[in-house]
Amino acid sequence: MTVNEFRRLTQGRADSSWCEYFGVGAATFRRWKTGKARIPGAVERLLRIRCNELSALAGASGKDWEDFSFGPDGKFYHPFWSRGFDAGQLKAMFFQVQDAWADKRELADLRAELAELRKREAFYRRQCQVESRRAPARA
């Protein structure tokens, strides 16, 4: 990673927040930023993942994640959606999907139950018709 790339990826947030994030002192961070010290590979990967590029994980997680990213605002960006998602929105979407799947299963169960009730209805209707034909006419 070049110094310029490091600066570009770390802009937009205070140096102190990056120091806290990486677990280093301000002097170490300044040395990285000015090119006086080599940026460790782990810091480079962590920065790419945190800031922008989930493609840094593509080798481990597959190509499906290549165009997803985390912005400098801390939000998760989907390649086909311009607004980022914060953690609360992602959690809410997860639970909405879980609810939708539960509703889908319940709907399938209710449809099966309805089909069974319709079969019973048809059976009892035929029974009523047969019995009404057998019954003697009352005067």
Task: Provide an overview of this structure.
The chain is mainly alpha-helical. The protein folds into 2 domains: about 1-85, no CATH class; about 85-139. It is about 65% helix and about 5% strand. It is built from 6 helices and 2 strands, in the order αααααββα. It has helices at about 5-10, 15-20, 25-35, 40-50, 60, 85-135, and strands at about 70, 75. Strands 1-2 form a two-stranded antiparallel sheet. α2 (about 15-20) crosses α3 (about 25-35). The relative contact order is 0.06. The model has no long low-confidence stretch (mean pLDDT about 85).
How is the topology of this model organized?
Blueprint: H1 3-10, H2 15-22, H3 26-34, H4 41-51, H5 58-61, E1 69-70, E2 76-77, H6 87-134
Antiparallel strand pairs: 1-2
Helix pairs in contact: 2-3
Outline? rod-shaped
| Low-pLDDT stretches | none
Mean residue pLDDT: 84
Give helix % range: 55-70%
Give the DSSP E fraction (strand runs of 2 or more residues).
under 5%
Q: What's the total number of strands?
A: 2
Main sheet attributes: strand count, strand direction, barrel closure:
2 strands, antiparallel
Q: Which structural category do the helix and sheet elements fall into?
A: mainly alpha
Order of strands across the main sheet: 1-2
Q: What is the string of helix and strand elements? A: HHHHHEEH
Short recap of the structure:
Helices cover 63% and strands 3% of the residues. By secondary structure, it is mainly alpha-helical.
